[in-house]
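Reading a protein record of the kind used here takes little practice once its layout is understood. Each number in the token line that follows is a code from a learned vocabulary of backbone shapes. One such record is shown here in full, so that the layout can be seen directly:
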Amino acid sequence: MCERVEYERHAYQLGKQYIIGLDEAGRGPMAGPLVVAGVIFPKGYVNNEINDSKKLSEKKREKLFDIIKHDALAYQIEIISIEDVDKLNVYQASRLGMINAIKHISIQPDYALSDAMPLGDVIEHEAIIKGDSKSISIGAASILAKVTRDHIMLEYDKQYPEYGFASHKGYPTKQHKEALQKYGVTPIHRRSFQPVKDALTIQLTIDSDEFKL
């Protein structure tokens, strides 16, 4: 028996028909977009391999990415731009992405399970702390979001190879911070994040000193 279907089962017992699981990837990185996904599975769907994307290997995530898209009744992936993340902050950008996923998915859900994100009166829902490891629908959404975002960062790695995006995916690792200090801020860096602000300040100081010379 899959341990991660209790929240879905409870919603079905309430008479709900289409339950969307919602999660995001990319709240912590200082570069790249935020990605939000929503997944609606058929009633009674079980797959014991689906779990929090962070607990799975890259190979397993890639495999499940295709399985989820095939097996889902519907899924939606929303990409929140770097500009919107800076303008809204990552929390509000995540919430907006989840609301947009609900609005844009091809089957209109009547209930939502989110990874710890209150959605107000947009839809009847339950916000579950660590929901990506407790709900199959949220876990599936976490996989779609994570794999999509990783693919985006691999493409950015080709544009900016000196930053190491292929390995750290934009997270503030030591390697990434050192590259930021050495090479400066790129167009895909989030300017509202402190390490990026600090690097911009250094760049402006250097540019100002050079201008004086």
About this structure: The radius of gyration is 19 Å. Confidence is low (pLDDT under 50) at residues 208-213. Residues 136-159 form the longest helix (24 residues).
